[in-house]
Automatic annotation (TrEMBL):
One of its GO terms (molecular function) is DNA topoisomerase type I (single strand cut, ATP-independent) activity. Keywords: DNA-binding, Isomerase, Topoisomerase. Residues 196-640 form the Topo IA-type catalytic domain. Residues 3-178 form the Toprim domain. This is DNA topoisomerase. Residues 868-902 are annotated as: Disordered. It comes from the Eukaryota. GO terms for biological process: DNA recombination; DNA repair; DNA topological change. Coiled coil: none annotated.
DNA sequence: GCAAGGTC
């Protein structure tokens, strides 16, 4: 029997499609074969309706197997999936060395290669294992350009291991579907086509453009500005065709706020006195108790709005005030009553969910997406990444609704809807990807936890609202004349709340009801006054507004919008303020203003859509892939060179906001070359800067630095500093020069003296090292000479710390080694009063691992946390040192070498 | 260390 391999874009889809095709086969076969207008002869298929599933070798993708017919023959079907893109584009390794490659080379010279997108998933191997020996392949990837591109990634992996076709028989098929419904999937199976190479090529072009342009600009501006300003708190200044315009939106709003000049204006406000009587009508019963209370209040005054709204000249306002003030009565000129409707929402898609999550639930897009994904994988909601706001025609709306009928939060509403009949959902947009986001089963807050619950509650309420009725309300208004001036008063009364019952935050605000009156009626004026007000600036952009702008300009996709927003936060270009408003930082502002100054297209949202237009030509087969790519790269290469030549313009802006390196930081350690003080710059990346030599020395991050007793490195004369990760962590001395320019072959950048193999320096590993770490492979336990009186021995690779010999007044690493485990012996002196040693001893030399006296004085921990090893009973203590302290044969010894000179010579070869 | 796009 021949085998048909089928591949979907994600595991969940493989399962749904396999279920449909394996069970619905007989009906589907009938349906499919009844189509007479097939564009091409399509392989017919059927299956007896049972399917078996197993996990693939990567543990993530499943394989669903069943038998059926295909191309008129009995076959074995294997349905599986990838996890998004199989491959990713990157430069060849040597072009990823920032110091060695001129970013300009990234536009053309630097070759790119496709790498596995997620090596852990082992996707190519997995596809080959499953594809080996298959005869046909049907590609069920999402029906968009990215999906088309993944088709070819799958084919590249699988075709070489599949059986060879006989006599030009077609073996590669593409299924095109627009929803995951029985009809659609069966139709797709009945009308298999071919993957579209042009669409795939347009994605290849997009990938290459994004990579080359993004990396070139990012590397250039990072290298240019990094280390130039002391208080520029960013080690990466990135640029990207999506993230930069996203930042641009935030800065644009900031500029509007900055340039805003408040203007004073004046408003007339009138109050009339009216005996209260409301229209009688059936809607009254629906009004809230608030209204009924108002109704009992017989006399009240009515606030009128001025038809001129406002004037910007005080004297003119005063004139109008004077004229109206003379009048004692307001005359009704017209009345109107209109029934209006507030529409029920469209079915929920991803961006709308993210907007509401941000604006109403205070949940950032990235977080909201993660929460939604968890709800999805746990089966509470449908697939959360979709652009579609239209339920498929045969979508079962009542099923999910019934599941909610006993939910304590909305049982009443749902039961009434089911009893009285649901409303037809509004016609939304069908993007052909996934159905809108809906609840899949009932859940409670206790079950989900408060965060996930809030999102689930919103999704469910939104779903119920889409099958509810519009909210109907009555808008009435009365036009008045007071002297020469006209005033109006409006009121809204809810006729039927419709969907706002389940989405109360959308309710028509309760407004006072208006009195019944007719044209010509008069009301006594109780007050006319003039109010002075000021126009106010807009506020910073909310995340929700930003999402709307990005969607409108085609910046990013439903899945990547949260990533871009997260990026500009993490890169320190904007900060999220209260109300989830995005306030650009100085860095963000300077960058955008810099782009505006040099080449505004770099930050305008139009650039992405212009490129996309070109890419679409490739997809439609109207333009040549190579030509478009070459042409676009050429344009950006020119832009890049112009940007490089004009960078001083951006630098001028930087100078205003940031202070030069030489003017920042506090003097800390002395430079070994000029013997002047260097300055310690705390802003990330923290570093030392010698303004005389104009050299910068990076320091280890995430810790504090102080001077180390003015001790100097014997190799370069730089003053040592002491790095510490905190009182419960570890610390070690460090030479700023050696750490940046490793003196020995076996040392790497960033290392401290505790890893230095200098054979005689008193701060080195050679002198302070004790023995192999008890936990990690390559680490050595090193005495921390500054840690007394709470002495510590810490691993120079991992975070193992041993606390030992508390209150000893001196601890030294001896030249002798333990005969049992080869660890260096420690020489410990205690004060007479505090000595824990037996008898009246104050001094003891021994091995920390093997000496029974020392074993009682050593406590193993992890830096800043308690170590699990220490939880055991007393019995394990004995064996610990003996077994683990021993250095394996062949490993470099941390002991003091016997022949210092020969060892020294070896290092300097 | 960099982009944006899939998805987990």
């Amino acid at each position: 029997m021949k085998t048909v391999l089928m591949v979907a874009e994600k595991p969940s889809l493989a399962q749904s499609i396999a279920k449909i095709l394996s069970r619905g086969s007989i009906r589907a076969w009938g349906l499919c074969s009844s189509h007479s207008s097939l564009e091409q002869p399509s392989p017919r298929f059927s299956s007896p309706g049972s399917m078996s599933s197993h996990k693939g070798l990567n543990g993530t993708c499943s394989v669903h197997e069943y038998t059926g017919t295909f191309a008129g023959q009995p076959v074995h079907f294997k349905m599986t999936s990838v996890c998004g893109h199989v491959m990713t584009l990157d430069f060849l390794g040597k072009y990823n060395k920032w110091d060695k490659v001129d970013p300009a080379e990234l536009f053309s010279q630097a070759p790119t290669e496709k790498k596995e997108a997620n090596p852990k998933l082992n996707m190519v191997k997995f596809l080959q294992v499953e594809g080996r020996g298959c005869d046909y392949i049907v590609l069920w990837l999402d029906c968009d350009k990215e999906g088309e591109n993944i088709c070819f990634e799958v084919l590249d992996a699988v075709l070489p291991v599949m059986n060879q076709a006989h006599g030009g028989e077609k073996t590669v098929f593409r299924a095109r579907f627009s929803s995951i419904t029985d009809t659609d999937i069966c139709n797709a199976m009945a009308r298999l086509g071919e993957p579209d190479h042009n669409e795939a090529l347009s994605v290849d072009a997009r990938q290459e453009l994004d990579l080359r342009i993004g990396c070139a600009f990012t590397r250039f501006q990072t290298k240019y500005f990094q280390g130039k300003y002391g208080n520029l708190d960013s080690s990466l200044i990135s640029f990207g065709p999506c993230q930069t315009p996203t930042l641009g939106f935030c800065v644009e709003r900031h500029d509007k706020i900055q340039s805003f000049k408040p203007e004073t204006y004046w408003v007339l406000q009138a109050k009339v006195h009216c005996p209260f009587s409301v229209h009688a009508g059936s809607f009254q019963v629906l009004l809230s108790s608030f209204f009924l209370q108002v109704n009992t209040d017989k006399d009240r005054s009515l606030l009128l709005d001025w038809d001129r709204v406002r004037v910007f000249d005080r004297e003119i306002a005063q004139m109008f005030l004077n004229m109206t003030k003379l009048e004692k009565e307001a005359q009704v000129e017209a009345t109107s009553r209109k029934e209006k409707a507030k529409q029920r929402p469209l079915a929920l898609n991803t961006v709308e969910m993210l907007r509401v999550a941000s604006s109403s639930l205070g949940m950032g897009p990235q977080h909201a997406m993660q929460t939604a994904e968890r709800l999805y994988t746990q089966g509470y909601i449908s697939y959360p990444r979709t652009e579609t706001t239209h339920y498929p025609e045969n979508f079962d709306l009542k099923g999910p609704l019934r599941q909610q009928a006993n939910h304590p939060a909305w049982a009443d509403t749902v039961k009434r809807l089911l009893a009285e009949g649901i409303n037809r959902p509004r016609k939304g947009h069908d993007a052909g990807d996934h159905p809108p986001i809906t609840p899949m089963r009932s859940a409670t807050e206790a079950e989900l936890g408060s965060e996930a619950w809030r999102l689930y509650e919103y999704i469910t309420r939104h779903f119920i609202a889409t099958v509810s009725y519009d909210c109907k309300y009555l808008q009435s208004s009365i036009s008045f004349r007071i002297g020469p001036e006209h005033f109006t008063c409006t009121g809204k009364t809810v006729i039927s709340p419709g969907f706002t019952e389940i989405m109360p935050w959308q309710s028509v605000p309760l407004e006072e009801n208006l009195p019944t009156c007719q044209k010509g009626d008069t009301f006594p004026v109780s007050e006319v006054k003039m109010l002075e007000k000021q126009t106010s600036p807009p506020d910073y952009l909310t995340e929700a507004e930003l999402i709307t702008l990005m969607e409108k300009h085609g910046i990013g996709t439903d899945a990547s919008i949260p990533v871009h927003i997260n990026n500009i936060c993490q890169r320190n270009y904007v900060v999220v303020e209260s109300g989830r408003r995005l306030k650009p930082t100085n860095l963000g502002i300077v960058l955008v203003h810099g782009y505006y100054k040099i080449d505004a297209e770099l930050v305008l949202p139009t650039i992405r859509s212009a490129v996309e237009k070109q890419l679409n030509l490739i997809a439609q087969g109207k333009a040549d892939y190579r030509q478009v790519l070459g042409h676009t790269l050429d344009i950006f290469k020119r832009k890049f060179h112009y940007f490089v030549d004009s960078i001083a313009g951006m630098d001028e802006l930087m100078e205003v906001s940031f202070s030069p390196l030489a003017a920042t930081g506090k003097p800390l350690s002395r430079c070994g070359k000029c013997h002047r003080f260097m300055k310690y710059i705390q802003a990330k990346p923290s570093r030392l800067h010698c303004s005389h030599c104009d050299e910068t020395y990076t320091l280890p991050q995430n810790g504090t630095i102080k001077l180390y007793k003015e001790l100097r490195c014997p190799l370069d004369d730089f003053e040592l500093v002491l790095w510490s990760s905190g009182s419960r962590g570890k610390s070690y001395p460090l030479c700023p020069y050696c750490s940046n320019h490793p003196p020995f072959r076996d040392m790497k950048k960033g290392m401290g003296c505790n890893e230095c193999t200098h054979p005689t320096c008193q701060h080195s590993l050679s002198m302070l090292g004790i023995g192999q770490c008890v936990e990690c492979e390559n680490g050595v336990l090193v005495l921390d000479p500054t840690s007394g009186p709470k002495w510590k021995v810490a691993c120079n690779k991992c975070n193992v710390v041993a606390h030992c010999f508390e209150n000893a007044h001196r601890v030294r690493v001896s030249a002798d080694t333990c005969s049992a485990c080869e660890a260096a012996l420690l020489d410990v002196d205690f004060n007479k009063a505090k000595s824990p040693l037996p008898g009246d001893e104050t001094q003891h030399t021994g091995c920390v691992f093997c000496d029974p006296i020392f074993q009682e004085l050593v406590e193993l921990k992890h830096a800043a946390s308690c170590h699990p090893m220490h939880r055991g009973g007393p019995g394990r203590r004995q064996g610990r040192g003996r077994a683990r302290g021993r250095r394996p044969a062949g490993k470099p010894s941390a002991r003091r070498p016997k022949d210092k000179m020969s060892a020294l010579a070896a290092y300097f070869v």
